[in-house]
Design goal:
The protein has about 240 residues and is an alpha/beta fold. The chain is about 40% helix and about 20% strand. It has a single domain (about 20-235), classed as 3-Layer(aba) Sandwich (Rossmann fold), CATH 3.40.50.720.
């Protein structure tokens, strides 16, 4: 059961028909791995912590740099030089003391995948390169762990839902195995700070919807930052 403090804290969610007390308990019992605590990861982690997702595992081996502060909103000037996961863990604990947050200051790699994915229900991928996304997808599919990947460019934001627990195909690494990192990233092309936060919040919102009312269909959503139109592509096979 929820405590009195939790009822008050999450009251605006609990009153939603799709949530209620049962849905809030589902969120509290959920275990999520966030890979990449950058512009996307900071926004999604804060939203999930505030919403009451009970366990967050943060994976990133980078330290806070001055150029991060424009869009990575869990960090401030005094954090420069500190490990991102350590700073984010403290910030999220202050935001919501009712949840558990673990920080893993390492990259997602073949030799770390097993420990990072242990006990996890969902993975939120906020990495900034195709090689990492392909590797994450492969390991999630092998272990039947649902994956929600987000990507960002100056003009587009993208969400990719891969419900590997319900279906093994299609898979990200099967559809995009030939894609190179030619599109660049924030380091090479830049991005507006609110747009990075918007896509990270969109990713968190999509996850909350999936936790409360799961779907079994893989899909890709793409948002055009100029026209504000969203295109959805359903993926039924490879």
């Amino acid at each position: 059961m929820l405590t009195d403090q939790e009822f008050v804290r999450y009251s605006r969610q609990i009153m939603l028909p799709q949530c209620g007390e049962a849905g809030q308990l589902t969120l509290r019992q959920s275990r999520v791995l966030l890979i990449g605590i950058g512009g996307l990861g900071c926004a999604s982690a804060a939203a999930l912590a505030a919403a009451g997702v009970g366990y967050l595992r943060l994976c990133d081996n980078d330290k806070v740099e001055l150029s991060n502060l424009q869009r990575q909103l869990l960090f401030n000037t005094a954090d420069i030089g500190k490990l991102k996961v350590a700073v984010a863990q403290q910030a999220l604990a202050r935001l919501n003391p009712h949840i558990q947050i673990d920080g893993c200051p390492e990259r997602f790699a073949a030799d770390s995948a097993e420990s990072l994915l242990d006990g996890i229900d969902w993975v939120l991928d906020g990495s900034d390169n195709f090689a990492s996304r392909l590797l994450i997808s492969q390991h999630c599919q092998q272990r039947q762990i649902n994956l929600l990947s987000a990507a960002l460019s100056p003009r587009h934001g993208q969400l990719m839902l891969w419900p590997y627990r319900q279906q093994s195909t299609p898979a990200y690494h099967q559809l995009f195995s030939e894609v190179a990192d030619s599109a660049g990233n924030c380091l090479s092309q830049g991005v507006l700070a609110p747009f990075a936060a918007m896509i990270g919040q969109w990713q968190a919102s999509m996850l909350l919807q999936q936790l409360l009312k799961p779907t079994e269909q893989a899909a890709i959503w793409q948002l055009d930052a100029h026209s504000w139109q969203i295109q959805r592509i359903a993926l039924t096979g490879v």
